[in-house]
């Protein structure tokens, strides 16, 4: 089979905003043949659709549920790129998963210094290859390998928020913000959001989203408690968890063993919320009047090197009530970044 150009532009509205199928693993396309229109057209000006042989494999970076990622060299430009080789389901009737199409369609809409760039998409031999700009490591490994002074933490948090502010301004929820999904160049400290497989476009109507999003340790309390009409503020909560992790030497702030342990760890750190703290708390699907009561004293003991401005920002990002949680755009102007 010859490599094919891919046109995802037509899917941006229909796939990314689909309100019925929010299962990120459910296939949404059937078998694609060479005469399929979306495989015959180019993916805009940003993607070339050249033969897969254009990319010379250097070494394998990792492997996940949907395929492997390789560090490659672009023969045409000489640049180093990351090639994500997606598996197309063995049952040809199943086709390509929704998460793959959503990732492509959403990245097609986003262009920002703190969002990873999708350079190319190639379909060849029943495989879909996504070609991204290359950054040396993810934030989890960076936290493990390097000591992080406070000015470095500020730079990383600021860039994460900048990327999220752009996504949210384009009405995109990332829904899986965690250190493994944030790429960084140790030499330049350039930070980029990556892995948009669980991302969704925000709908204007009261939409119900799946709760099977966001790795548990970074999951907002409203999702843990069964709220399905959540907002971009869930990404800000995740960013707050990452800020705390950066300040804690790479140790997760809320490392719950299961969902109930997760919500209890949040309560222990921040205090069990009241209806004054969170107006809809008692209306959450999984609310219980038997929740243990903690006073939240641990929060200020957890980060001894953080100044008052830092506590103010972190607490506003880890605000229980999603309607009171600071937005990514507003957080960019917080005085902590200039102090």
How would you describe the overall organization of this protein?
The protein has helices spanning 11-14, 37-40, 98-109, 139-145, 150-169, 221-224, 233-247, 259-270, 298-302, 308-317, 328-331, and strands at 55-64, 67-74, 80-87, 118-124, 127-133, 137-138, 172-173, 182-185, 190-193, 200-201. The protein has 339 residues and is an alpha+beta fold. It has two domains: 11-133, Phosphorylase Kinase, domain 1 (2-Layer Sandwich), CATH 3.30.200.20; 137-338, Transferase(Phosphotransferase), domain 1, CATH 1.10.510. The strands form three sheets. Strands 1-2-3-5-4 form a five-stranded antiparallel beta sheet, covered by helices on one side. A three-stranded antiparallel beta sheet has the order 6-8-9. A two-stranded antiparallel ribbon has the order 7-10. β1 and β2 (67-74) form a beta hairpin. The longest helix has 20 residues, at 150-169. The N and C termini lie far apart (58 Å). 40% of the residues are buried.
